[in-house]
Amino acid sequence: MSSGSPCASKKCYCGIPSKMLTSWTTDNPGRKFLTCKFSDVHTGRKGCGWFYWVDPDVVEWQRVVTNELVVEKRLLKTELRVMMTELQKLEDDKALLVAANERLERICNGGVAGMKGTKDKGQEIAHSVFWFVVGLVVCCVLKFVMKFL
Ligand SMILES: [Zn+2]
Asked: Could you say which residues form the signal peptide (predicted)?
């Protein structure tokens, strides 16, 4: 049953305007009725107990079709909830993969930069060794030449 607004045309035993609700029982699915303003379907409180059907009795085919639609709606709601949960898991997995991808990119970029640095340092050392050898050779040649002078 769904909650409704006060209906001024009919008053319950309390002498106040009744409220209109919609029944969602399997016997009367979708059928509107008036009841005491103090009744509450959630707590089971009946108020003064006054009750009046607004809609005529539900025809059998309407009852069957409406009940099937109500069941289908519940199934679809459940399916939607499951799909939303799966979607959330996929979103979480995506976030983890994006973070892992960023870490790998940082490592790769850092690695290339590190290798580049190593290469530069290696070249620097090779240059130093080369000039040391050149200097050594020049010294030896000069020493050799000095012997003959
Ligand atoms: Zn009442």
From this structure: none
- The last residue of a domain, from among 58, 82, 97: 58
The predicted pLDDT at position 8 comes to 54
Whether 30 has a pLDDT exceeding 70, the answer reads yes
> Separation of 34 CA from ligand 1 center, angstroms?
11
What the block records as the tokens of 23 is 């029944």
Smallest Cα–Cα separation from 14: which of 47, 42, 44, 40? Answer: 47
Same domain, 68 and 42: no
Predicted structure pTM score: 0.54
Distance of CA 85 from the midpoint of ligand 1 (Å):
44
